[in-house]
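REQUEST ID: PR-0412
SUBMITTED BY: lab tech R.K.
PRIORITY: routine
TASK: structure prediction, single protein chain
INPUT:
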Amino acid sequence: MVAGAGVYICNDCVVLCADAVKKKPAGLKRATPVWEGVDDAALLAHLPRIEAIRHLVDDDLRSWVGEARRRGISWDRIGEALGMRRQSAWERFA
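STATUS: complete
OUTPUT:
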């Protein structure tokens, strides 16, 4: 998935992903990381964008977990879905 509900990706990355999907048959090795083609200044300039996206994703995850709890889904099941223990899920999202 490149873009859709609950997915946060910048426009430049959408273009890169679309190009990769068109060109890369299944089963090939991972492409060279994007940062290998940029200088230090560009890499540092990109970090705040990544941090902002992380905050959006965290907020979205909290909303999804909140809805799961509103529906009565147990902390055990939420933790299992997130690959963590019930206690860890509760501490992070309660």
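NOTES: The chain is about 65% helix and 0% strand.
REVIEWED BY: pending
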